[in-house]
Amino acid sequence: MSDEEILVGYDGSADADVALAWALDEAAHSGRPVRLAYVFEWLTVAGWIGPGVAPGMWPDDTARRQVEELVQRAAGDAAARHPGLTVHGEVFDGPPSLVLQERSAQAGLLVLGSRGHGGFAGLLVGSTAVSVSAHAHCPVVIVRTDTGGGGAGAGDAVVPGRRSGPVVVGVDGSDSSLLALGWAVERAAQRGVPLRVVRAWSPAQYRSQGFDADEAAATEQTAVADALAPWRETFPAVPVDVEVATQSPQSLLLAASRDAQLVVVGTRGRGGLRGMLLGSVSQQLIQHAASPVAVIRQR
Asked: Residue 37's closest CA among 79, 75, 66, 76?
């Protein structure tokens, strides 16, 4: 058990309810406390504040009070449905992305829905989820309602992803992906499910070195085996399946997500540019994966 809490971005939307359900399921495996964080951004024009909360102008103490009641009710309902867990709710002030990024420094995990009440139907993942995934100080899990879940009430929504499916992780040899591998193995061990390790490679990268196809494939298999070796010793009971293929990492991981309960990736891999905090593979997955996606970065 860890004392580092699971922080959930919560605004009462269907996406937030599904994110909360996932976080509570994770807490049941890890024993961590859960904190619902509603980030209240004062509006200077009339606009949406939250479900059951009337739009208002700054400063609107009534709207703030309604938000606090919403969060405390959601936290209380979640705690009542999960009596073995510690669940708190708190309201913060400021821009949502910035506040969640700052709060993530004290959290062990941050869980977000793909978009809240400010999202547009045409956007698969909202700007807050993308920004926080790139800048958070702890691992971030993005849970979309269209991955199989639905908002059935705070803390009682259907958890997306296949419960019996494996934890899938993308590995390319980068430091970021090796962090993701360790995090994924630990989750597979906690949940008692297999680990599936996916590695994509291109023959072109070996031609200039004079490798033939068989030698290149063997080199890639060895790289995965070496990365897995210490984790096999630490968690010998976790079944491990390895897929090494000459496809794009996006296509391999998106296909694997269809049967997964969780897909885990680093913030960026070997192809990432130093100035890009969230790589193209991570971006594609949080937008299109059929399961929740965890993005892992070094603190």
From this structure: 75
